[in-house]
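Appendix B, record 7
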Amino acid sequence: MVLRKPYAFLIKHFKLIHIIILFCISIALFNLNDISILFRTLQRTSTYVYAGADIYINHGIYVFLVIALVLSAIVYYLFKIKKKPNKLYLFLLIYLIATICCYAYIFRTLKIVMDTALSSDTIILIKDLTLLLSLPGYVFVLICLIRGIGFNIKKFNFSKDLDDLQISDKDREEFEFTLGQNNYKYMRTLRRSIREFKYYILENKFAISLTTIVVVIILGVVGFNYYKNYIRGLQETESAIVDNITYTVLDSYVTKYDFNGDRIKEGYKYVVVNLSLYNSSLKAKTLNLRKIVLANGKLIYRTTNFVNNKFYDLGKPYIEKQVLPAGSKSEATVAFEVPEKLNDAYTLKVQYSLSGMFNNVSLDYKNFMVNVKNIDKDENVVNHNLNENIIVNPVDKNYLKFNIKSYLIKDSYSSKYVKCKSVNTCYLLSNVTSSNSNNSMFSNKTMIILDYDAFIDNEANYYSNLITVNNIFENYMTIVYKIGNKIKSEKAIMLDSNNIDNKLFISVDRDITSADEIYLQFDFRNDRHIVNLK
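Structure tokens (predicted):
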């Protein structure tokens, strides 16, 4: 096999090779600068654990460094074969190898700082290391730029010219300068300079065009991404990644009432944001709720955990330290308490980094525009009789259809069922559900036994929280009865149904046996449905 030596090809594309090396080193320098800023900030703010450090780990840097290393080795070998000065490329090879090794250490440290406190010495070491790697990098970028566009810097080497000059007193003599004479000489010099500059552009138009295109593309992509992700707020349904968790705002609501329609706190309202969360990492994670805030202008509000369980109909509330398994996708709501008179122009902010200068610390956020829906309406009361279908759908995301068919008031209820050990061996067993209990709080209790039918949408928000119809009724139902002129009400307390289908066993005070009127009250936010039993 006959092969042709590649030297001519390499020499022909000498400038292009340097442009590629320039681009690869520049990418690494941008990343080093970000890491340097991070560790300077950690040092100034005495921060030794930072969960968001993984956004600085970019293993793609290795690809650019290896490309630069291979091309530099090729140029070094070419210069060595041609017996040209090659020390510059030897130093470049050493620099690139050292940078790759240092990056391995830096990335390992970034993984550690996410979960474990670093010593101040380690933080200072990484900060200084990034600086030491950056300084020679800028020098090599300048050299590659000069060689990439074909600029001969030797023409501007004045050291030999200064040695050849013989400086005398005549060189210090004063002379008269008259403006306005021989102007044509200046214009001729100017035209010649412009002409030579045009020739220079034409002679190197390929390298200049390539460099310009690369720079414009890089600046365009970086600028667009920066505007999209950091300056322009993300709209609902748009996603952003913070700490390997992809955040998407699905819905957002503002209300003053809980899922039963009761006022939570006078003078305040609550913004509830339903988030889609995708953990793209290889390990389980939890949300750092301190990094999730709601902004209204310059006002910042943090999550209000104690009211999370008051909005079951708006989504599944996120519980502090709730684990997001690796590779999992889930939905969760976070709630914010804000003054009632505040306008409804909100931005959800998720902190992804921190920066600072001197003693000032700045938090960097991904911003999500929050278009809240006000779900507070006037109360709507509807009366029903037994065996009448009731359909509810709070906030259009909680479809439920049910029918209270009949009721009984008894102290106990016996049911029978068949249990088989084999095909030919079965037993008739019985269960007894009773209002009696050793607990003193049930000593004066009886039961209302409801016979019902119900259908609930599996996609309903309160189904994902409460799971069973029993739990839904327990949270939304109140038993109201009237004895003479006195009205009593009790929140439903469910007893174990022993897996008897379509029956509810509710503990109530024994006074209900003397009631003149009895009805069930179902409060679904602003809708109240009353089922008359007696």
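Remarks on this record: The chain has three domains: 7-154, 239-374, 380-532. The radius of gyration is 38 Å.
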